[in-house]
Each structure stands twice: as structure tokens, then as C-alpha cells.
Automatic annotation (TrEMBL):
This is Cytochrome P450. One of its GO terms (molecular function) is oxidoreductase activity, acting on paired donors, with incorporation or reduction of molecular oxygen. Residues 502-526 are annotated as: Disordered. Keywords: Heme, Iron, Metal-binding, Monooxygenase, Oxidoreductase. It comes from Xylaria multiplex. Its cofactor is heme. Belongs to the cytochrome P450 family.
């Protein structure tokens, strides 16, 4: 429509859309430059009308946001760094275990588990512990995927998702089991327990100053703002908004770094060796932020993924807005699309090419590029989690590329990375086989040209038998039996063919003294 009718178009009976990056600061303005209400159908579409994302009124949004802003400050995010390092260790353990079992690791669920554990512990004081439980992590991935698909319905019928999320749990489990995991009541009851218990042993740990405590201790807020069924929405919105988004930035960064190992990865690794001479060291956020290539890679990944595909309509409630010669009457919903800005050819040369070097200080156009770098939005409603997201990306990518040697496995840009569908945030084509799958070349477990999945199907047992040791001595199999077993390692496959194996599953992480079995059948008894 913009190609046909120009930069300002009435795209439906209610809404005007502007396709002109230079107008960004007029619409998505800061609090000092005019009021902006949110357009209700957009506010409600993710199902949390009482959290900041779902708050329509400008003034109420300011009040709600100011109560929790300090938690998400730059210094707040820096305090989260030790937690992020701890979660990185768990992420690596998960990756190792999957490679042992499957021969590769699929990173979408893994990164989602990582970012969701970070944001949930940080924002609500309670981790979802997805990195401790692969089964739960997969279920959570399905729930978030389902929520994304439902935003399409929510866009047109904005009451649907909030209504579903408030239905009796037994009914939700029956009709939409995926939604039952995004349980606001569970969060709310947790907050009641922890906030009423001043002796809480977690009170000095990360997450103790969580969104709930900040709201409850805020003196500007009336009691009606502090009731459980309002503040639980703040917890849910942080977890839902902060998990998938940051996870996607990781997958995009990983894909593009590994697609150009000769230049990009090499420069990154060299830089990391300087700041992390010991691969297991834990540099501060400030040290990591001083690395030009790491910083440039993160910025370029956030730009090129251009994740928010939805429009973000706002309403100027009392002042008309002006675009060139047009006057937009007060009260009219007007939207722009961040993706248009992030991929604007007038700003970024070859916007679909991954070029981290455009963010280096040697680029004379850097100020202009920075001005339009809006993956987190702009103005009053800009992402509250921006500092946390950056901290996760700096720490996570530094550890990954300092400690592991990775290869892409059966991943293509067109099928698995590029966005093909608008589900509020962008989703790749339905034919995707998942996001970057990795072979890991240097871990302490090696494997060879050995298709564990196939073996798994053939033996039809919910266990995989994997040898530790060198690639040449990987367990060999015949069609139905393993012919030879040396130093067996056992890992169950969850929920395989109805075999509902629950963690904890048996695993020897050391790789040095794995259990030995007389024959494979003994192993299956586990
Ligand atoms: C790469 C990661 C992320 C991206 C690309 C991203 C993107 C965005 C964008 C574009 C908005 C603005 C929506 C609007 O204009 O209405 C937003 C809002 C928001 N984001 Fe993020 N986000 C990310 C990470 C996070 C994290 C880690 C959190 C954790 C708390 C978070 C929590 C929120 C919340 C609560 C809002 C609503 C803010 C408000 O309405 O005042 N996001 N995000």
C-alpha cells in the first residue's frame, strides 16, 4: 500500500500507518513531548491488560512503569551478570547432553530456557528452572509458540487471550494445555508467599528485589494498583516479553557468526582471548562492552533480525499530530513498524546483509545508524528489559565463542532464520527445522559419523547408548542391537513414543567413569 499510495496510508477503518523512519521520534515520543495512549486492541493482544505492556492510558502507564523502572536500570542489569554466568554453565551442560544423545543440539529451546530462567529469576524472584529440566523447556517452547500464534487472533478479538488466561485452570488444561503453563495465578501465589516472608533466605539474592516487591513498596501507588491480580500481570509480561525475544537474538547472532568463520568469528575470538585469557574467567559487563567486534555483532544481530513485526499503534489523546502536510486528528490510532526502520535502505546500505563492521567507530555514518537502531522501540513505551537483554547477549556470546568450537548443522538462512510470518514478533517459515542446530567440535565428548537418532529408532528403546572416548571407538550398532558396548553412557529420551520418561535422567557428566553394563538390555532397565 505504501508503494502505491505513499508514506502515509489509512490501512483500515481505524488506523493510519506511516512508512517514514524520520517520523519515528514524533510518534514514539518521550514523556516530555506529549501524551501517547496505547491503542486498546494492541495493548490487550498479549493477554496482560493490567501489566505495563497492556496499559492503555499514558498517565497510568507512567505510574506503573516508574515503580519498576529502577529494577531494569543499567546497574540492575550489571548486578545480574553473576546469575547469567551461572546459567551459561547450565546451558553448556544441556548442549553437551543433547549432543551426546542426538549428535547435534537444537538451540531454539536451549536459548529460550536460558533467557527465560534469567528473566524470571531476575524479575519475579523465581526461576522457571527450564535449564534444569529439558522436558519443561520443550513444553515452555510450545506454550510460547502457541501464544505467538494466538496473537493473530488477539489482534482482531482483543478479549480472547485475556479471557482464556483467566479461565479456571482445569478448563484451560482441557482445551488449551499449552496456555496452562503461562499461569498468572501460580506466579501470584508465589509472590504472596515470598513477599510476606521477611525471613526469606533468598532475600539477598538476585531476584529478591523483584517487580512485585518494588510495586508493593512504592508509596505513590494506590492500593488498587497493588492487588495480586494486577501485579501478577507485570510478572507474566516480563517473562513472556523477555524470553523469546532475547533467545532469538542469540540464534541470529550464532547463525551469522558461524556463517562467516573466517572473518567474523576469527575477529571475535581474537578479541575474547584478550579479555578472557583463561576461557573460564568471568569478565565484567563493562569489560565485555568495551570489545568493538562483540558489540558490533550484537547490534547488527538485533538490527537484522528486525524481530518486532507487529505494528505498534499509539494515540495522541488531545493534540493533533502532523505528518508533512497532513493533520491527524487527536484520538486517531497511528502506527509505524520497527522492522521497516531497521531494514530501511535509506539508512542501512544492504540492510539484509549481516555487516557488523558498519557499527565500528571507523564508520563516518555511525551517528545516523545509531539514531535509527530501534530493536527495542523508542519513547515512552520502549522496552524496559533492554539492559538485561544486552547483559545476557554480552555474557552468553562471550562464553560460547571463547569456550566452544561450533559448526552449523542442517541450518539454512532462508528456511530457518529469515522471518516469513508476523506473529507479533516474526517467525520463520513453517517449514523450518528449528533454529541453529549445532555440531560441537570441541567439547569433552567426541562423536563420529554416528546417527544416534537412527539407532534410537531402530532399537526402539527409550535409551541411547553412547561411548565416551575418541571418535574412532564410538559404539557400533547393527539394525536392532548394539553389537559392541564399551563404557556406556545412558540418557533417556523424554516423552518418546509415549514413554513418558521424566527427569532426572541418568547421566555421568564427567565422562571418565561411566557405568558399565553386561548388555544393552540392562541399561534399558534404568
Ligand atoms: C532482544 C530482546 C528484546 C527485544 C528485541 C525487545 C523488544 C521490545 C519492544 C520493541 C518493545 C516495545 C513495544 C511497544 O512499543 O509497545 C518492548 C517492550 C517491552 N519489553 Fe522488550 N524486548 C527484548 C527483551 C526484553 C527483556 C529481556 C525484557 C525483560 C523484562 C523485556 C520486557 C519488555 C516489557 C515489559 C515491555 C513493555 C514496556 C512498556 O510498555 O512500557 N523485553 N520490547
Amino acid at each position: 500500500m505504501h508503494e502505491k499510495y505513499g508514506p502515509i496510508v489509512r490501512i483500515n477503518p481505524h488506523e493510519i500507518h506511516v512508512y517514514d523512519s524520520t517520523w519515528l521520534d514524533t510518534l514514539y515520543t518521550g514523556p516530555a513531548y506529549g501524551k501517547r495512549d496505547k491503542y486498546p486492541p494492541t495493548a490487550y493482544m498479549t493477554g496482560t491488560p493490567r501489566g505495563i505492556f497492556g496499559t492503555v492510558s499514558h498517565d497510568l502507564h507512567r505510574l506503573r512503569r516508574s515503580a519498576i523502572n529502577p529494577l531494569f536500570s543499567k546497574s540492575g542489569a550489571a548486578a545480574a551478570v553473576p546469575m547469567i554466568y551461572e546459567h551459561t554453565e547450565k546451558l553448556f551442560t544441556r548442549m553437551k547432553s543433547q549432543i551426546t544423545r542426538n549428535g547435534f543440539t537444537e538451540m531454539r529451546a536451549n536459548f529460550l530456557a536460558f533467557t527465560t530462567d534469567n528473566v524470571s529469576l531476575y524479575s519475579t524472584g523465581k526461576s522457571r528452572d527450564l535449564l534444569d529440566d529439558e522436558y519443561l523447556a520443550d513444553e515452555w517452547k510450545m506454550s510460547i509458540g502457541k501464544l505467538a500464534e494466538w496473537t493473530l487472533i488477539g489482534r482482531h478479538f482483543s478479549w480472547v487471550i485475556p479471557t482464556v488466561l483467566e479461565m479456571p485452570m482445569a478448563l484451560i488444561r482441557l482445551i488449551l494445555p499449552e496456555f496452562s503453563r503461562i499461569d498468572m495465578r501460580e506466579l501470584a501465589s508465589y509472590y504472596v508467599q515470598t513477599t510476606s516472608n521477611t525471613e526469606n533466605p533468598k532475600s539477598k539474592s538476585i531476584g529478591s528485589t523483584n517487580v512485585f516487591r518494588m510495586i508493593l513498596s512504592n508509596e505513590q501507588m494506590p492500593p488498587s494498583e497493588k492487588v495480586t491480580n494486577r501485579i501478577s500481570h507485570e510478572g507474566v509480561v516480563a517473562i513472556a516479553a523477555g524470553g523469546e525475544t532475547t533467545a532469538r537474538a542469540f540464534t541470529v547472532a550464532l547463525f551469522f557468526i558461524l556463517s562467516d568463520k573466517g572473518t567474523i568469528q576469527e575477529k571475535l575470538k581474537k578479541e575474547l582471548e584478550q579479555v578472557m585469557p583463561d576461557p573460564y574467567s568471568r569478565p565484567s559487563l563493562k569489560e565485555l562492552e568495551s570489545l568493538p567486534w562483540l558489540s558490533a555483532i550484537i547490534k547488527e544481530s538485533l538490527r537484522i533480525m528486525a524481530l518486532p513485526t507487529t505494528r505498534f499503534p499509539l494515540v495522541s489523546p488531545s493534540e493533533p499530530l502532523r505528518y508533512q502536510e497532513w493533520v491527524i486528528p487527536a484520538g486517531t490510532p497511528v502506527s509505524m513498524t520497527l522492522r521497516d526502520v531497521l531494514l530501511d535502505t535509506k539508512i542501512y546500505k544492504e540492510p539484509f546483509d549481516f555487516q557488523p563492521q558498519r557499527w565500528l567507530s571507523t564508520n563516518p555514518d555511525l551517528d545516523k545508524l545509531n539514531k535509527y537502531h530501534v530493536p527495542f522501540g523508542r519513547g515512552n513505551r520502549m522496552c524496559i528489559g533492554v539492559n538485561l537483554a544486552y547483559a545476557e547477549l554480552y555474557v552468553g556470546l562471550a562464553c560460547i565463542f571463547r569456550r566452544l568450537e561450533l559448526e552449523l548443522h542442517d541450518t539454512t538462512r532462508e528456511r530457518d532464520i529469515d522471518i516469513a510470518r508476523d506473529c507479533f514478533i516474526g517467525e520463520p517459515s513453517p517449514s523450518t527445522k528449528g533454529w541453529p542446530k549445532l555440531d560441537v567440535l570441541v567439547f569433552d565428548i567426541f562423536y563420529d559419523n554416528y546417527d544416534l537418532n537412527t539407532a534410537h529408532h531402530k532399537v526402539d528403546l527409550p535409551v541411547l547408548l553412547v561411548d565416551y572416548g575418541k571418535a574412532s571407538s564410538v559404539v557400533r550398532k547393527t539394525s536392532h542391537e548394539f553389537s559392541e558396548i564399551v563404557n556406556v553412557h545412558v540418557a533417556t529420551q523424554h516423552n518418546y513414543h509415549g514413554w513418558n520418561a521424566k527427569p532426572p535422567y541418568f547421566e555421568d557428566q564427567t565422562g571418565h567413569n561411566p557405568p558399565k553394563y553386561e548388555n544393552p538390555r540392562d541399561a534399558t532397565m534404568l
